[in-house]
């Protein structure tokens, strides 16, 4: 089912024909799901030939594998950018940044693509492996941020799990959750968390 949010966060990297295939593939995956990753419709939308597809990808399975590689690479890039921005941030700034960044280009959480890939991972072992690595990296980075603020490994783990579990819940829910709604949910949760954090000097 098509969703109202379109993933534009990777468009800046689209240059070659191969990148155009992967860019559109991620957009279609996010908005229509993996069943829509068919060569002929994608070729028509790109204005490219099937020969172009097979020049860059051995077959449909290779294309799906390349899509997962791109998804993981972009997730890692966004996570690194977020971690760098928050390296010296205080508690309130961390909360504001995490909530405001949901759905933006440099957010480690891209709701529509996240939901699509996670749903795909339940039926595809290769996708499950990639999503597991992405989740592990995301949790480790969030724990590192919270550990600096809380100086308690147990609390850091708990606070890192909050946005992660909200995202997993949204991806498993039968109700459609928009990016704006998810952002407001994070804002609400972080408002509840903030009074429990150390005061900034």
> Beta-sheet strand percentage?
under 5%
The largest pleated sheet is described as: none
Shape: elongated
Rg over CA atoms? 18 Å
> How many domain modules?
1
The residue fraction in helices comes out at: 55-70%
Number of helices: 9
- CATH-level-2 architecture: Orthogonal Bundle
Overall CATH class: Mainly Alpha
Structural class based on helices, strands and sheet pairing: mainly alpha
Order of helices and strands: HHHHHHHHH
Whole-Å distance between the termini? 49 Å
What is the CATH third-level topology name? Tetracycline Repressor, domain 2
Supply the CATH superfamily name.
Answer: Tetracycline Repressor, domain 2
Summarize model confidence as the mean pLDDT.
81
Low-confidence stretches: 1-14
Total strands: 0
Q: What key phrases describe this protein's structure?
A:
disordered N terminus; 201 residues; Tetracycline Repressor, domain 2; single chain; mainly alpha
Q: What do these coordinates show?
A:
- With 201 residues, the chain is mostly helical.
- The protein has helices spanning 17-32, 39-46, 50-56, 60-85, 91-100, 111-121, 125-150, 153-172, 179-193.
- The chain has a single domain (11-196), classed as Tetracycline Repressor, domain 2, CATH 1.10.357.10.
- The chain has nine helices and no strands.
- α4 packs parallel to α7 and α6 crosses α7 (125-150).
- The longest helix is centred in the middle third of the chain and has 26 residues, at 60-85.
- The relative contact order is 0.12.
- Residues 1-14 have low confidence and may be disordered.
């Amino acid at each position: 089912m098509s969703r109202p949010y379109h993933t534009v966060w990777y468009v800046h990297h689209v240059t070659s024909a191969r990148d155009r295939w992967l860019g559109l593939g991620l957009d279609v995956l996010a908005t229509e799901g993996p069943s829509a990753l068919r060569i002929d419709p994608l070729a028509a939308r790109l204005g490219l030939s099937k020969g172009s597809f097979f020049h860059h990808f051995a077959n449909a399975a290779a294309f799906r594998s390349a899509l997962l590689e791109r998804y993981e690479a972009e997730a890692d890039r966004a996570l690194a950018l977020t971690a760098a921005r928050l390296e010296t941030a205080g508690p309130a700034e961390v909360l504001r940044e995490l909530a405001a960044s949901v759905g933006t280009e440099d957010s480690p959480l891209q709701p529509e693509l996240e939901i699509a890939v996670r749903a795909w991972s339940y039926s595809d072992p290769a996708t499950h492996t990639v999503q597991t690595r992405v989740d592990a990296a995301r949790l480790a980075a969030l724990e590192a941020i919270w550990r600096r603020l809380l100086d308690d490994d147990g609390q850091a783990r708990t606070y890192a799990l909050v946005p992660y579990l909200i995202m997993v819940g949204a991806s498993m829910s039968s109700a459609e959750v928009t990016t704006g709604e998810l952002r407001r949910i994070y804002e609400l949760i972080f408002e509840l968390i903030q009074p429990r954090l150390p005061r900034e000097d």
